[in-house]
Every structure is written in structure tokens, then in C-alpha cells.
Design a protein that fits this description.
Strand content: 35-45%
Number of helices: 4
Radius of gyration: 18 Å
Distance between the termini: 24 Å
Order of helices and strands: HEHEHEEEEEHEEEEE
Largest sheet: 6 strands, mixed
Structural class: mainly beta
Number of domains: 1
CATH superfamily: Endonuclease/exonuclease/phosphatase
CATH topology: Deoxyribonuclease I, Chain A
Strand order of the largest sheet: 3-4-2-1-12-11
């Protein structure tokens, strides 16, 4: 294959035509010749806060987002801010299922909010996170972590769903992928609780390689994230991810289980298809 770094392969994403992938992008899961070693299994993953389907211009455009996702050539993608029949901002569409269909991937959606339909007999209005996967999804879960609701007046921190998990088998290796969206407020107290919940849930997961994808709404050096780095390694892409037009901070992450998953390369793709930029990483899974 063409020997390009992941960052170089993604450099042209912002300027690629809507229906085309970035030129010379590596094939899915084919990180390098080193990945062919019998004890290492390659996997390309990404995380992307899709802003309910809207770009940096606040225009809803699933064609644009599908093109941006396709250009990543990722095997597994964690999505945040995903609408499923939520409302007018996303044309009442099932964004998770539509993106999966356009990319030819399996999907698991984990709602944070699941509200009664706007009209009797209609679908429930849902908002949450999702995982897209080229590999069959063998099982899924929607865990509760501490949240401060945006849907009720005077909310108090309480357990709520929206910490998604899928179980995969990648070339014989069991993999558990989690996707999360941590609290956005300046006060870190809810994120502190969410990190504790995340560690408790993930530490109970034994016998599989674990990967955490998501929008953490905090920079890597934030004290509330420090406990995560005891068991996980940050796939640092070396670039900021938010806001998409002039990124000045990194709040979007690929994090992997220490000793079981290694990071070969990581990058932030340049695209205005959302108000965030996607983070993509080439991983090697230990057998």
C-alpha cells in the first residue's frame, strides 16, 4: 500500500468532493506491514460529535456528514449528539440508522433521552450516542452514568443512560467498544462523577480488549480526567478538535486499554461537516 501517515491521509478531507474519500487514504484496518504480525490485529477507530447532523454552518446535511465519515476509512466509529426522530433540527429523521446504511455498517444506538412522541402514534423522540461497525455487533448495552439533565427544570445529578457499549469480534479477538458524551458545563463536578462511573463499568469488563470513544468536554490535562489514564492510554493525535473552524482545544478522544491495545497512529481530520472535527486512530489489538 502507499506508505502515508494517517495524518497525511486525512489532510485533504476538508477539501474532498462530497461523494469522495480523501485521496490515497489507507484501506480499513491496514495500518502497516507491522500489523500483519500474528500477535497483532489492526483496527481503525474514530470518534465524531456530529452535532445532530448539522455542520459548522448549522445546516443539517447528512450527505456531507456521511462523506466525512466515509473518508476516515474507519472500522468502528463512535458518534455523539445523535438524533433519532428528535425534531425539526434533524428533519425528524433516524440519523443513526441513516448514516449506518449510507456507510454499509452495523449500528447500535444508546439514547440519553427517550421522550414521548410529539404526535400520538409517532416514534419516540431520542437523542444519544451510537457506534457504527464494519464488524457484526454481537451484543450491546446502554449503561447509566451520572448526568445533569438538559430536559427538566432545576436538574440534579442522577443516574441516566447514554453510555453505550458494543461487543465485537475482530479477527478472532473479542473487543468491547464504549462511546460516551461527558457533561459540558464549566463546573467539573458532574464529569468527576461520570469518570468514576466510567471506570467502574469498564473495570468490570474482563476478557476483551476495551476501547473508549467520545466527547469528554475537557482537555487532556483536566484534573477530572486524570483517573481515566490509570487504565487507559490517550491516542493523542497532536491536534485540537474543537471548534471545527478554528480548533483551540482537544476534547474528543480515542482511549485504549493499557497493555492490551496499542496506538500506531492518530490524527484529527479537517472537515466542517460538524462543529467538532473527528479523531481517528490506527490501533493494534493484542491476541
Amino acid at each position: 500500500m502507499t506508505q502515508l501517515t494517517l495524518a497525511t491521509a486525512l489532510l485533504g478531507l476538508a477539501f474532498a468532493p462530497a461523494a469522495q474519500a480523501a485521496p490515497n487514504a489507507p484501506s480499513p484496518g491496514n495500518a502497516s506491514s507491522a500489523a500483519s504480525a500474528p500477535y497483532r490485529v489492526p483496527l481503525r477507530v474514530a470518534t465524531y460529535n456530529i452535532h445532530a447532523g448539522a455542520g459548522m454552518d448549522d445546516v443539517f446535511d447528512l450527505d456531507r456528514q456521511a462523506a466525512a465519515l466515509r473518508a476516515l476509512h474507519a472500522d468502528v466509529i463512535g458518534l455523539e449528539e445523535v438524533d433519532v426522530h428528535w425534531g425539526a433540527r434533524s428533519q425528524n429523521r433516524d440519523v443513526a440508522t441513516e448514516l449506518a446504511a449510507r456507510l454499509g455498517m452495523h449500528v447500535s444506538f444508546a439514547p440519553i433521552y427517550s421522550l414521548d412522541p410529539a404526535q400520538p402514534g409517532g416514534p419516540r423522540r431520542e437523542f444519544g450516542v451510537a457506534v457504527l461497525s464494519r464488524y457484526a455487533i454481537l451484543g450491546s448495552g446502554n449503561h447509566e452514568i451520572t448526568r445533569l439533565s438538559t430536559q427538566v427544570p432545576d436538574p440534579v445529578p442522577a443516574p441516566a443512560p447514554g453510555f453505550g457499549e458494543v461487543r465485537l469480534r475482530v479477527r478472532g479477538v473479542p473487543v468491547h467498544v464504549y462511546v460516551t458524551h461527558l457533561d459540558y458545563r464549566g463546573d467539573p463536578s458532574v464529569r468527576v462523577a461520570q469518570v468514576a462511573d466510567t471506570r467502574r463499568i469498564m473495570n468490570a469488563d474482563r476478557g476483551a480488549r476495551t476501547i473508549l470513544l467520545g466527547d469528554f468536554n475537557a482537555v487532556p490535562t483536566a484534573p477530572e480526567l486524570t483517573p481515566l489514564w490509570r487504565e487507559l492510554s490517550d491516542a493523542d493525535p497532536g491536534s485540537n478538535s474543537f471548534p471545527a473552524d478554528v480548533p483551540d482545544r482537544r476534547i474528543d478522544y480515542v482511549a485504549v486499554e493499557r497493555g492490551a491495545v496499542s496506538v500506531r497512529d492518530a490524527a484529527v481530520a479537517e472537515t466542517l461537516a460538524s462543529d467538532h472535527r473527528p479523531v481517528v486512530a490506527d490501533l493494534l489489538l493484542r491476541r
